[in-house]
Write a structure and sequence with these properties.
With about 450 residues, the chain is mainly alpha-helical. Helix content is about 40%, strand content about 5%. About 15% of the residues have low confidence. Keywords: Coiled coil.
């Protein structure tokens, strides 16, 4: 089998002969006599570069067949393609770094490069989390100094059995239940209507007095209950009672008549004045001595601030044809963004206002059950969609590089405190493509160019 050098020498000789034959004045007989080989053919032959050579490994002759074969020894050069079929990767970080180096050296592959960077970022987060968990485990494994139990009991005293402790607790619970039952019976007898005197059945009107520093609220009905009937003990802490905050003006003694008690009128020169307080609610039922606190009227809600129209953007060419066509495309495919808009100026102002807004808080279960259901909510994805359309409208020719748009949207999301910036920017771009509002031209580098689907 001739070598490559012999083949090149023969090719050079044949080209010289063809060149000499074409240079003669007389036309020789035979076909293809005017064919001449390009003399700079050898300039197209070059040695393989380093990044091309290291992808393959030449083994040489194998066996007695005399065939030359090429094969790879060891792991795959591109392990990400068949990572699930591999037996296991010991050093995951080294594999990711090697994959990133391969993508950067072998050729422009932006999708694979961004995917590998996301995997490296996720791997670093997992490693940091594992280190934190290992530190917590080490702290938990360290022995703690436990104070020895007090040994004040004499040696001759026998140890208390657990069954005896449980039995004593059960007896104490039974005694407590019996005392509670007797107190319930006493409370029922004390509030029975048969023993209430006719004088006590007269309705009383009590006046609630404001306490400094306290907000008056309407309290529940206070009657003789188990808590009020329980006797105080020295070991129990003092409990809070709303009756301590209530005081009523003392009534002066006087002779009672059909017009009321006599002698209660205060002198004209008295300095004591009753404060103007809202009257307490009078109960209709007889014998109900409930005390109610007057509720304070809530102040009126402040009026909403007047709406301010955003300033006209100087980066958008309002007279351009693609700007008008792009706004018409947004109105036809995304009507929830631009509502009741007639001219491009108002549309761009509405997009700018929407891009600077804050997302609505998620509704709580109680508010969602009571309030009427809202048709649309302002989400971070809607705000980023308005930012995306503003970027396209501000471009001079109506197109933008996809990677630059992604980086711009990601930086905007991170500046506003949204952690899922890369995912949110990708969702916004492909949501607009799904609505057939924009399109992507994959030709060229940097992920292609985005423009309106006009």
């Amino acid at each position: 089998m001739p070598s490559l050098a012999d083949s090149l020498a023969a090719l050079s000789e044949h080209s010289k002969q063809i060149s000499e034959a074409c240079s003669h004045n007389t036309e020789p007989h035979g076909p293809f006599v005017q064919v001449q080989l390009y003399t700079s053919l050898f300039s197209l032959i070059r040695d393989a570069s380093h990044k091309e050579v290291r992808l393959f490994k030449f083994v040489g002759e194998e066996g007695n067949g005399g065939r030359r074969i090429e094969r790879r020894d060891g792991p795959l050069v591109t392990p990400l393609k068949k990572a699930n079929k591999a037996e296991g990767v010991e050093n995951l970080e080294a594999m990711l770094r090697a994959a990133l180096k391969l993508v950067e050296d072998y050729g422009p592959m932006p999708r694979a490069r961004s995917h590998i960077k996301d995997l490296i970022r996720t791997h670093d987060q997992h490693v940091d989390r594992m280190m934190e968990l290992e530190e917590l485990i080490e702290l938990a494994r360290q022995p703690r100094k436990v104070a020895p139990p007090p040994t004040s009991s004499p040696k001759g005293k026998a140890k208390v059995d657990i069954d005896e402790i449980i039995r004593a607790e059960e007896e104490a619970l039974k005694a407590l239940e019996n005392s509670v039952a007797s107190l319930r019976i006493q409370s029922r007898r004390s509030v029975s209507p048969e023993k209430v005197s006719p004088i006590a059945k007269a309705p009383r009107i009590s006046v609630a007095v404001h306490t400094p520093g306290k907000t008056p609220t309407s309290s529940h009905q206070i009657s003789n209950s188990l808590v009020s009937a329980t006797p105080r003990r020295g070991a129990q802490p003092s409990r809070f009672s709303p009756l301590k905050l209530l005081t009523t003006p003392k009534v002066q003694k006087g002779r009672k008549s059909i017009f009321g008690r006599a002698g209660i009128r205060a002198p004209s020169g008295s300095a004591y004045t009753i404060p103007q307080i809202a009257p307490a609610v009078e109960e209709e039922e007889e014998g109900n001595e409930t005390i109610r606190l007057a509720s304070r009227e809530e102040p009126p809600s402040p009026k909403p601030s007047p709406f301010k129209t955003p300033a006209k953007s100087s980066k958008v060419d309002y007279e351009s044809q693609f700007v008008r066509e792009g706004i018409n495309k947004i109105q036809s495919t995304m009507p929830e963004l631009l509502k009741d808009v007639d001219d491009p100026d108002a549309a761009i102002q509405q997009l700018g206002l929407l891009s600077e807004s804050n997302p609505d808080a998620p509704p709580s279960p109680t508010s969602s059950a009571s309030a009427p259901s809202q048709t649309t909510r302002l989400t971070p994805q809607t705000i980023m969609l308005a930012q995306f359309y503003l970027i396209l409208l501000q471009s001079p020719d109506g197109t933008a590089v996809m990677n630059e748009v992604k980086e711009a949207l990601t930086s905007i999301a991170q500046s506003r405190g949204w952690t899922d910036g890369p995912d949110l920017s990708t969702k916004v771009i492909y949501q607009s493509m799904a609505k057939k509002c924009t399109k992507i031209d994959r030709r060229g580098g940097n992920g292609g160019r985005i423009s309106f689907a006009i």
